[in-house]
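User: Hi! Is it possible to get a structure for several chains at once, not just one? Here's what I have:
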Amino acid sequence: MTELKNDLLLKALLREPTERTPLWIMRQAGRYLPEYREVRAQAGDFMSLCRNPELACEVTMQPLRRYKLDAAILFSDILTVPDALGLGLYFEAGEGPKFERPVQSTAQIGKLAVPDVSETLGYVFDAVRTIRRELDGQVPLIGFAGSPWTVGTYMVEGGSSREFPIIKGLAAEAPAALDSMLDIVARTTTEYLNAQVEAGAQAIMIFDTWGSALERDDYLRFSLAPMQKIVDGLTRQNEGRRIPVILFTKGAGVLLKDMVATGCDALGVDWTTSLADARQYTGDKVALQGNLDPATLRESPEVIRQGVADTLASYGKGPGHVFNLGHGVTPDIDPDHVAVLVDAVHELSPQYH
Amino acid sequence: MTELKNDLLLKALLREPTERTPLWIMRQAGRYLPEYREVRAQAGDFMSLCRNPELACEVTMQPLRRYKLDAAILFSDILTVPDALGLGLYFEAGEGPKFERPVQSTAQIGKLAVPDVSETLGYVFDAVRTIRRELDGQVPLIGFAGSPWTVGTYMVEGGSSREFPIIKGLAAEAPAALDSMLDIVARTTTEYLNAQVEAGAQAIMIFDTWGSALERDDYLRFSLAPMQKIVDGLTRQNEGRRIPVILFTKGAGVLLKDMVATGCDALGVDWTTSLADARQYTGDKVALQGNLDPATLRESPEVIRQGVADTLASYGKGPGHVFNLGHGVTPDIDPDHVAVLVDAVHELSPQYH
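Assistant: Yes, the chains can be modeled jointly so their relative placement is included. Here is the combined structure:
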C-alpha cells in the first residue's frame, strides 16, 4: 500500500494533535460542481454513476482537484444496501429515490435475508479500490453507509418521507418485527462496511439523517442500538492503522450524550448544536466533526470567513475537531464560495493547535 | 362576561393545582374532521373561512362537540399578520401559502410599517367575539400568532421553505435590516394579540415552527428576542384573570433553557424532547405543554393509550402539565382515535395530581 501523505483527518478523528484543523465537506462531490454535472449527464442516471467504478472515482476526485481538502469520500448512496436486499431501487426524475418492493408488513420482513455483499455490492468495492489507486496516498478515503433506521425509513415508506407514518406504525404495533428488519440491515451494513475497509476505506462514517424524528426511547432502540451493532462488528484496524468510525445523527442535540457510549471515535454535529455545547455533552471523549450551516455558503466571502472563524472558536483549543458543514453542500452553491471556506480553515485554524 | 365553567387549562398554565391534566390538541379544528371539510368546502378557500367570523366560530366549536377538551383555539392562520402588512397572502391549490409581494431587500423592509390592526385584522377580533359568545364559558379560548421569525420566513421566502436561503442571507448580510423587519412584525403581533385579548382570548400561544433551523446565537437574536418583545408588550390581565402566555419553538431541545427567561408562563414541547428532560431544563419555572408524537394517532387504541400513559408518566407528579400533541394533528387521522386519546388523558391523569 502507498504511504499516506496527509493523515491529518485520521489523527484528528483519534483526537491526536495536528498542526491545523483538517477539513472535508459533506457532498463535496456533487451537483454544485459543473464537472460533476458533466459526468453525471454522461453516466445517465444516478445509480449508473454509482455502479461505474471509473466514473464514481472521477467524481470522487473532482473536489480534490479544486480544493485543499484533507479527505476523499467514496461516491455512492446510502440506498445501495436495501437495493442489495432486493427492494429494487430506482430514481424518478425530480422525485428522489423509490423502491419497487417496499417492506411494510411482518410477513415481508420475514422474507428479508442478509445478502452476499461481494456479489450484490461488488461495484462499490471496485470503486473503493479504483479511488485508492487514483488517490495514491494523497489523502485518506472515507467509506460510508446509512444507519439502519434511516435506510429503514426508505425501505418501509418506499421512498422519501417527512412524517414516516408506516415505519412509525411498525415501531408502535410490531416493534419486534422492526427490530428484526433493522438487525438484518445492520448485519448487511457491517459486512458492507468491512468490505469497504478491506478494499481500502481508511475511515467510516454512518449517516443517520432521520434518527432525530424519534422520541428518545425509540431513538435508543431503533436508531442507536442498530448503529451500536455495526460499530461492534466493524474492522477497526487495517494497513497498520486504526479505522476511525464517525456517527452522525442529524439534529442529535443532547442525544450526543447517548451516542458517545457506542465506542465510536467521532460524532458529526449539525449547526443547531454549537460545538462548544457538543464538546460539553461528549466530555472530550470523542472527536467532533462539523458544523457550519450550509446556508452560509450562499453568502459573501466575508460572511463565510466569519462563519469559519466562529465555528473554529466554538470548538476552541486542542485536538479532535474535523471541520465540515453541518449537512451537505447544496446544488445551488457557487464553487468559488467553497474555496473561500477551505482557505479560511487553512488560514484560521493553526492558532487552535 | 360569562363565568368560566372549566378553568383547568388556565390553572395548569399558571402551575396551580388541578384534579387532572387538562388537554387540547394542536389543529384540533382541522381537516381530519369531516364536518370541518364540509364547512371549508362551503367557505371556498382557506382565507375566506378565516375571514368569515360565523364559519371560523363554527369550525372552532366542532372538536368541542366531539371531545371533552379543556380549551378552544381560535381558528385562524399565522400569516394573517403579514397579510395585514400588505404582502398579499394567497393559497394555491396543493402548494401552501404564497405572498404576492415578498420582502427580500433592505429597501423593501424600509417600506414596511405597523398597520392599524383594528382595520386590517378586524375579522379576527370579530371571530374571537363570536366564539366567546358561542362558548358561553364552557372552556377558555386560546388566541395565537406566529413568532416573528417564523412569520418572517414566509414573508421573505414568499412561501414555504425548507432551507430558508433568502432570510438566512439577510441574517448574514444585512442583520440590522432583518432586526428591523422582525421588530415591525413583533410590534404588529403585539397589537394583534392584545386586540385578541380585548376581544376575549383568555390565553395566548406563539407558534415558532422554524426557530430551531437556526444556530443558537441566531436563534437568540432573530427568533427569541422578537418573541421576548411580544411577551413584554402583552396585556397579561383581563376580566380579572391572568392571561397565560405559551411559547412553542418546535424542536427547541435545550433551547428551552433560554426560553424560560422570557417571562412566559408555559412552553410547548415537541416529542423529540421528553417532558422529564424538559422539566429538568426549565426547573419547574414554567408550565409545559405537550408532547405525544402525532404519528401515534395512526396506531391502535392500545398504542395510543400507552402513548398517553408514557407522556403523563414522563411529566410525572405535580401541577403545570397541559396535555397536547408535540405538533398538529394531521389530516389523515381517524377522529375516533382522537377520542381514544382524550378519554385516556381523562382516565389516566388524576393519579398525577
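The longest strand of chain B covers residues 141-146. The first helix of chain B runs from residue 8 to 13.

User: Great, thank you!
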